[in-house]
Every structure is written in structure tokens, then in C-alpha cells.
Amino acid sequence: MMRGGLLLAAALAVAGCEREELPTPAQIESLAMTAAQRADPAAEQRLQDLAERGAVVARRELGILYKARPASRAEAHGLLLQAAQAGDAQAAFHLGEMLRSPSAGIKADPAAAWPWYQRAAEGGQARAALMLGLMAKNGEGVPRDAATAARWLQLASGLGNAHAMFLLSYAYREGDGVPRDLDKAAALLEESAEREYPPALQELAMTTQDPTRAGHLMKEATEHRRNNWNKF
């Protein structure tokens, strides 16, 4: 009986461990930040453990971490693929980035990147929608198509992407893929500038009739460029 009781207790302990709740996505992302910024091996090992337990966010964050390491590119691809297939939009975006950009002697494959960007954009990832707009506009991996470019830029703009707003303002001004609409063009340019996108600030500075405002906008654009403005 005693031996049987010990076995039962051990089995219950194992079951309890298996039922242990996973950390929240925010906690996993914080752990990933520690692993990346501090090169903390314990944090990275914890991420690996969570990824093996099936935590989608851990697989995504570990994939992003490995993506920066040429020797770990294959592992990064596998982890991001698993997370993207599980519906993680950020993972799909980073998978698209891997496929679109050449790395360690591997050629870029924009055509293969497109469906992952699309999956990410449809999941609410603004940067992915921006990339689809740019790729369609430039004919990268897909046929050049102004209307398709404008459609994805509209989605990115609706998701708050200042770069997309700026590009879309030009599209409406020129009637490129959308009906020409100068009012929409002006409104999008203003909104992009309000979000502190340097090219939009500079464009407004060059077109405004108010010298005081022009000086203020140009100064603001310069400051944001100096601060390496890279938000999408």
C-alpha cells in the first residue's frame, strides 16, 4: 500500500506539472526581451521550454531571437512557421521578412513571402499590410498593380501606419490606383504628419503658406530623422 501510495503521489505530481498554466503572452514577451537585450541564457532556456510545451508566443519570440543569428536561421524558420500556422500574425510577418530578405548566401524569395505577409495583414499586422502595398507598387514578387497596392496601403493606413498614410496621400493626389481626390490626399498627409512621420512633416513644411508653421514642421522633421524614426 505504501509503495502504491508513493506511485500515486508521483503520478499526481507529474499531472500537476503538466497542467501548470502557461505564462501570459505579455509575460512571455517580457521574458524574450530579457533574453535578447541582456543575452540572458536562463531566459532563453525558459523560452525554449515554453516553446516545447506548445506556447505559440514563445515559439514566435524564440524564432525572432534566432532570426538574428545566421547559424540559427533554419531553427528560426521552423519556429516562426509553427507560430504563423497557429494564427500568430506577428510570426507570419517575421516569416515574410525572412523570405523576402537575402541572408547568409540564401536568395530572397519575395513571391514566397507574399502569402505570409498577407496572412499577417489580415490578422491586423499594419507593417505587413504596408509591405504588401510596397511590393505590389514596385512589382516585387507579384505583378505591379497600383490598385492592389492602394488596397493594402488603405488597410495599413486604417491600422494606423503613418508610412502607408504618406504613400496613400500621393496615390490620391495622382489618382494612382484610386480615384483622384485632393481632399483625401491632404487629409492623409496631415494625419501622417500628426503621427510624426518625417517625410510627411517635410512635405507639409514645403507646401504650407505659413512661414512660422513651415519652420516648425521642418525642425520637427529634422529632429525625428536624427532620432532614427523607424516606426511603421
What is the CA-based Rg, rounded? 23 Å
Largest sheet: none
Q: Distance N terminus to C terminus?
A: 65 Å
Uncertain stretches: 6-17
> What structural class do the secondary elements suggest?
mainly alpha
Mean pLDDT: 86
The count of strands amounts to 0
Shape annotation: globular
Name the beta content range. under 5%
Strand/helix succession:
HHHHHHHHHHHHH
**How many H/I helices?**
13
The percentage helix is: over 70%
Organism: Pseudoduganella buxea
InterPro entries: Sel1-like, Sel1_AlgK, TPR-like_helical_dom_sf
Protein name: Sel1 repeat family protein
Overall description:
The chain is an all-alpha fold. It has a domain at 34-109. 73% of the residues lie in helices and 0% in strands. The chain has 13 helices and no strands. The protein has helices at 2-18, 25-37, 41-52, 56-67, 73-85, 89-100, 110-122, 126-138, 146-158, 162-174, 182-194, 198-207, 211-226. The longest helix is centred in the N-terminal third of the chain and has 17 residues, at 2-18. The termini are far apart. 38% of the residues are buried. The model is unreliable at 6-17 (pLDDT under 50).
Can you describe this structure in just a few lines?
This protein is mostly helical and 232 residues long. It has a domain at 34-109.
